[in-house]
Amino acid sequence: MPFGSMRQMLVTWLTVPLIMVGVFMGLFVTNLSFTFPALLGLLSLVGILIKNCVIMVEEINLRSDQTGLSQYTLVAACISRLRPVLLAAGTTIVGMAPLLRNDFFREMAVSIMGGLAFGSVLALLAVPVFYALLFSIGSHRKAA
Fold it and tell me: Which of 7, 41, 72, 90 could form a disulfide with 111 if both were Cys (CB 3.0 to 4.6 A apart)?
């Protein structure tokens, strides 16, 4: 396993359903159907999102090796990856804009653009949350 643990892989895969909201919201707003090109866009979007999540999980691993695993480590790692993830998403969204004029690729472009706009932000928020839940990081309160 490239991550070294099944839980780290699960953190990455738990974010995949989040992009579905962005894809279907984008298709709904533009009044387009979920066609085969939209499915191709969704599949490529899954790859982009997984790449972003792998980058964040690797940064968490790097920082936890240096300072130990804590809530602060999760937040600091995701803040340090904020700009690269959002810039990559932004350039891809802008790069898809010319495909909006093509009748065949319109659904694919909308699914990638909507999924990236929504999924990248959610992934930046969800990865530290899923990591904290799966690795039991956080405040442990005693019952009163």
Answer: 41
44 within 8 A of 26, measured Cβ to Cβ: no
* Fold (topology level) of 6-134: Multidrug efflux transporter AcrB transmembrane fold (1.20.1640)
Q: Can you give the pTM of this predicted structure?
A: 0.82
User: Please, is 44 exposed, middle or buried when counting C-beta atoms within 10 Å of its C-beta (0-12, 13-18, 19+)?
Assistant: middle
Provide the residue-wise pLDDT of the chain in tens; the chain has 144 residues.
Answer: 456 788 888 988 888 888 888 899 999 999 999 999 999 999 999 999 999 888 888 998 898 888 888 888 888 988 998 899 999 999 999 999 999 999 999 999 999 999 999 888 888 898 889 988 888 877 655 554
Q: In Å, what is the CA distance from 48 to each residue of 31, 112, 113?
A: 24, 10, 12
* C-alpha torsion 96→98→104→108, nearest 10: 10
Residues in the chain: 144
For residues 96 and 119, give the distance between their C-alpha atoms in angstroms, rounded to a whole number: 16
Residue 36 tokens read as 């085969």
